[in-house]
Model the fold of this input.
Amino acid sequence: MSLPRLSQSPLEHPFVQDPYPFYEIARAAGPLFHWEEYGHACAAGHAEVNAILRDRRFGRENPFPKPTPPHLEPFYAVDRLSMLEREPPEHTRLRRLVMRDFTSRRVSAMTPEIEALAHRLIDEMPPEGDLLSSFCETLPVIVICRLLGVPEDMAPQLLRWSHAMVAMYQVRRDRVVEDAAVAATLDFTAYLQSYIAERRADPREDLISALIAADEDRLNEDELIATCILLLNAGHEATVHALGNGVKTLISNDMWHPHDPDLLTEEILRFDPPLHMFTRFAMEDVEVGGHHFAKGEVVGLMLASANRDEAVFADAARFDPTRTPGPQLSLGAGLHFCVGAPLAKLEVATALPILIARCPDLRIIEPPVYADRYHFHGLEKLICAT
Ligand code: HEM
Done:
């Protein structure tokens, strides 16, 4: 059976600002549809997105890998060693090692530090300015630096490398973006090589030292670097926009007042998440949603659309921070479920209530605009006055 075909440019300004009307059309079109501009099948409903994320017949590794263009080799040499791009058994080994040190106990022990950092950033905030850079971005990047053990004063440099690298995953990608990503990968790798050598000689109580200790028999040097880069980049790139989208949603819904921190966090992640689509390859010929996927065929999984599915979330288009949490998919599901989920939730649940309490009159003084970087969904800036 051929799939219904839908056309929507992911670069179009109104879509980037509010993709949810298109998602509604996509869910109505059927369990699966063909997104013309991407040229592959997509799932927009909760049941299908959830099922495919958990279906081991789909994976992130292309079963028919294409040769890497030579100019991109330095980028992919690192990227293809990251757990996010692997499937078992390599994925299991890489993830298990990180999870051993990324326990919820270790993460929740960071609460006092996150609180103190939120207060410090608010103390340093100008009365008017970009909340995204002064608070939403600075907080998670410093937290992930501390967790890994990278000096905090490296945060601005890490942001530059990370932004250049993750630009490779956005739909608007050209040679300039590619060259910048390669340059950032080389610099980031060189920095980590020398930093890891330092920690090898002088281990501390941090995640990099722990990974090095396990590394003796488990991770080789290249995998160690790829893992550190993944954690450092994933550790802030989405959280900044969970915070930013959350502030924007609360203020624009006239709800800038205290809420239950955990329910608020769940609802912010459900309602306007920072990452909207991930893809999978069919690892074998497989039949799903009435569609025959040939081995190697791609499917797009529309996480933010699944979160608005009325079959799972009543009155899904309404932001309701008292809602009983449901199975929202902003952090993925299955094998690749976000390693940093407890940390991301703790950061939002800790930092936002402090911001609300300390800045009760916070207001947005310039209309916020979402950046044209689909599948990332985050604001360009968030100009506020306290
Ligand atoms: C609100 C913030 C965050 C969001 C929305 C988010 C979302 C996601 C999603 C959807 C995936 C799965 C991708 C897929 O299935 O293809 C993922 C994976 C991952 N995330 Fe996050 N993430 C966030 C914060 C973090 C943080 C703070 C870390 C810190 C280390 C982190 C580390 C990772 C890693 C390492 C993976 C790969 C897991 C694997 O492949 O097994 N994330 N994240």
About this structure: The chain has a mean pLDDT of 95. Residues 60, 83-84, 95, 230-231, 234-235, 238-239, 242, 273-275, 278, 330-332, 336, 338-340, 343-344 surround protoporphyrin IX containing FE (CB under 6 Å).
